Amino acid sequence: MTTTFEPAAGPATDSQVGRERLASLLQSYGAAIVLVILLIVGSIAFPTFATGSNFSNILTQSSFLLIVGAGMTFVILTGGIDLSVGSVFALGGVLAAYGSSFGLLGALLFPLVVCGAIGALQGFLIAHAGMAPFIVTLAGLLGVRGLVLATTDGGSATPLITDPVVVALGQGQVLGIHWPVLIAIVVIVLGSVLLARTRGGQSVYAVGGSESASTLMGLPVARVKFTVYVLSGLCAGLAGALNAAYSSSGVPTVGVGLELNAISAVVIGGTLLVGGRGNLVGTVAGVLLLSVIQNLINQVGSLSSSVQAVVSGAFLAIVVIIQTVLSRTQRL
Amino acid sequence: MTDAGTAVLEARDVTKRFAGVTALSGVNFVLRPGESMALMGENGAGKSTLIKVLTGVYQPDEGDLLLAGSKATFARPLDAQKAGVSTIYQEVNLVPLMSVAQNIYLGREPRGRLGLIDFRRMYAEARALLSEYGIQVDVRRPLRTLALGVQQMVALARAVSINANVVIMDEPTSSLEAREVETLFRVIGLLRERGIAIIYVSHRMDEIYRVCETVTVLRDGHVVHVGRLDDLPRVELVSKMLGRSVEKVERGGVTAFRAANESDAPPVLVATDLSRKHQIDGISISIRPGEVVGLGGLLGSGRSETLKGLSGVMQLDRGGVKIDGKSVRSGSVPAAIRAGIVMLPEDRKSEGIVPNLSVRDNIVLAALPKLSKAGFTSRRKQDAVVDVFIKRLHIKVSSPDQIVSELSGGNQQKVMIARWLAMTPKVLLLDEPTRGIDVGAKAEVQSLIDELAHEGLAIVLVSSEVEEVVEGSARVIVLRDGSIETELRGDQVDENALLAALAGGSAS
User: Fold this and answer.
1) What is the DSSP letter of A11?
2) Residue (of B1, B13, B12) closest to B214 by Cα position
3) What pLDDT was estimated at residue B259?
4) Quick check: B106 and A202 CB within 8 A?
5) Does residue B316 share a domain with residue B222?
6) Pfam families attached here (chain A) (predicted)?
7) What is the pTM of this model?
8) Are residues B438 and B292 in the same domain?
9) Is there a single domain that holds both residue B146 and residue B295?
């Protein structure tokens, strides 16, 4: 028990260092390893699993969650949480449908501006007014969903997208890959560079690692926190717009519970819920893992979709337990 | 070097108030390039407030800070850093998950093309910077995997590399090993040669006299002494900090203690070799029933830690406590309470009273298990206990149902004492029992301590008020840097002797 009080004083022994390094690798790449195993098992068990069209399908289905998860990763890395993304996702879709009457620019700009502004409002309340992220974004979840209903006649109207260019943004393909997947890849790559190679990205890790130390080191803590919620709002809005383009309509009821999927994917991807550690590669693995599990359950066919929720839930619980064990091994 | 050039940092009449309480009042000091100044003062003297003003955490209500002769305002810590005032704190304030190099350069990482961070250059620069101070370490390793001393060096390297002219060190050695302290002192020497001024805050006299040239002593928010250290004897420094004059010490009549509380019964509590890394080392105490033993020592000497070791609040590395010859499981508060050791904590507000509960509930809180059957509490038994203590301790309440936070500080303290007396303890540990309560209540608490000792309770008294320790205690055990410096008995117990012992080393 005394180890919990004593800091890692003095050089650790070789076996300790080895164990810590292994734990650290497992934490970062565990999701990717499990993903590979599932892909192999699935390919052997189901002839219809390892096909180009199925994989393309999994990727397209995952692309929206990938974009939302990218924003969520930034937020969680600072030690925060964004529960509003599901509602913002739906709002982004509805606004994209309305905006599509002004062409592609309207279909993208309209949702991005509004969803970015919602993120900015939440970020302001959290970063500058010092309110709890959980409460602020819970209010966002409820309020924005209300906004969605208000703009769609209480949810009964589903604005359609008729502009062929906008529809192509969702359904069109380049080299057999849907546009949303390509855009998700761009978001992930840009986000990764931002996190790993810029001062802003480093401050995201620093704020999550120790907010008080970051303040004392003179980092712009409030600005960092504000920015991640704006990013999360933008990502959710973009994903919503792409989803609307993909289904040619802004359905007001989409995205319910999406925030929980996004948080699960980020955590499964090895990002610490307390912040300071994790990356977007992990989030990609987490998102794909959730999608592959769902796909495999569909392959079995006889299992209902509710079983999928049970499996995902159990999976998340196991991941969190393993993460806790790994964190202790690393004496985080 | 002291007289060379103009002041690098100067405070002029700096005043800071919090909700009507003056924390700093007209503070002046001058710091020259290459100077190392000790900032001394006991609890509540205003040291931490002053440091926070200097580092931009607080802004002064009145007065100015001057950097190299021109007025400076720090709206936030970043402003102070940019202006060349860096701070390293007692607890290493870096991000443990990030690498050594990342920690040194956070917020000002070297950038290459496209504004992206150039990690290769950052690692090389970090390596070069640390090796200047003789520290060889893999700069890509996460900070948390390094020993605390090295972490402290990284913090220092960061502070200095921000072109600091002034480095403020707040208790930098409190968690360092002796060897690491040597490295720190060597680095401080290097910094001073480069003309960087140091403000050094520590409770360790030996360090102060080794590292510092000048000293500024604060007491109750005022600067009470400024001068060179080499012509200031330790005992005088201590007396300035505590506000007692060395020559003229009057004995008697200051406190409400009637007699030195002695006893010659066999000891009820015997503690041997209480030790915990960086906090206390080999402390052995025995106390007899009816005896009041004072624990003297400056802030940081291990007074409160000793009480925490005795009461099971703090895990011990070594040593143990026996009550009536029976060992008490160490590091367990319930075990200590069962054995009859109870403690009145120093910080009544955060560690003691439950402010929103009634006087009754606060008194019976600890004794509830004794007053209940099968999990149900008996209101009648509670009322009987509460009644007895309210009368006996003269607690002024409108009714036992009054909310405890409505009471005065003195009465709150009595409620706390009542809570522990309800447990019928054998040993009562009092940590600053009269701090923050008015004079009248102070006297009442003091005579209560007298009375309890008279009834056979063994009492350990920690107080930063010299006269309280001297007049209330039969013996005073003086701690310094976590060990017992000396023990004063009988006639030896007077203020001069205590001050001399507190200062340690070259006394009297």
Assistant:
1) P
2) B1
3) 58
4) yes
5) no
6) BPD_transp_2
7) 0.74
8) yes
9) no
Q: Which residue has the higher pLDDT, B103 or A328?
A: B103
Greater model confidence, B133 or B461: B461
For residues B498 and B486, the answer to whether their CB atoms sit within 8 Å is no
Structural domain range at position B502: 246-340+425-508
With CA atoms as reference, the chain B residue closest to A13 would be: B145
Mutate to test the interface with B, among A128, A197, A205, A223 (most CBs of B within 10 A): A197
CB contact under 8 A, B147 and A8: yes
> Which pLDDT band holds residue A132 (cuts at 50, 70, 90)?
very high
The dihedral sign for the CA sequence A162, A163, A168, A169:
negative
Nearest to B97 among A203, A209, A217 (CB): A209
- Closest partner residue to A219 among B106, B115, B145, by Cβ? B106
Q: Which residues of B touch A (CB under 8 A)?
A: 55, 76-78, 81-82, 87, 89, 93-98, 102, 106-109, 111, 115-117, 144-148, 158, 175, 277, 315, 317
pLDDT for the residue B27 = 92
Residue B104, min C-alpha distance to chain A (Å)? 10
The CA-based angle A176-A181-A185, given to 5 degrees, is 120
Q: Do B111 and A216 touch (CB under 8 A)?
A: no
Q: Kindly provide the residue ranges of all beta strands, DSSP E only, lying in B354-474, ordered along the sequence.
A: 372-373, 376-377, 427-431, 458-462
Are the CB atoms for B461 and B474 separated by under 8 Å? no
Q: Amino acid letter at B12?
A: R
Q: Residue B117 is nearest to which of A11, A202, A206, comparing CB atoms?
A: A202
Residue B2: the pLDDT is: 41
Residues of A in contact with B108 (CB under 8 A): 199
Q: Which of the residue ranges A138-147, A314-323, B234-243, B285-294 would you say has the lowest mean pLDDT?
A: A314-323
Q: Per-residue confidence at A17, pLDDT binned at 50, 70, 90?
A: low
Whats the size of chain A, residue-wise?
332
Query: What is the number of structural domains in chain B?
Result: 3
Please check whether residues B360 and B322 belong to one and the same domain.
no
ipTM computed for the complex: 0.81
What is the distance between the alpha carbons of residues A106 and A95, in angstroms, rounded to a whole number? 9
Helix (H) or strand (E) holding B271: strand B269-276
Of residues A1 and B11, more confidently modeled: B11
Cβ(B234)–Cβ(B241) below 8 Å = no
Q: Which of A21, A198, A217 to mutate to test the interface with B (most CBs of B within 10 A)?
A: A217
Which helix (H) or strand (E) segment is B198 a member of? strand B197-201
| CATH number of the domain within which B474 lies | 3.40.50.300
Closest CA to A221 of A199, A206, A232, A201: A206
Fold of A51-323: ABC transporter involved in vitamin B12 uptake, BtuC (1.10.3470)
Are B434 and B466 in contact by the 8 Å Cβ rule? The answer is: no
8 A C-beta contact, residue A198 and residue B117: yes
User: Torsions phi, psi of B216, nearest 5?
Assistant: -120, 120
**B97-113: pLDDT as tens digits:** 899 999 999 888 899 88
List residues in chain A touching B: CB distance below 8 A: 1-2, 5-12, 17, 20, 193, 197-199, 202-203, 205-206, 209-210, 212-220, 276-277, 331-332
Domains in chain A: boundaries: 51-323
Q: Which residue do the tokens 């959290």 mark?
A: A126
Position A331 scores a pLDDT of: 59
CB B359 within 8 A of CB B401: yes
User: What's at B360, amino acid-wise?
Assistant: R
Tokens of B362: 């606060």
Q: What is the mean pLDDT of residues B292-318?
A: 86
Which residues on B lie below 8 Å from A210 (Cβ)? 93-96
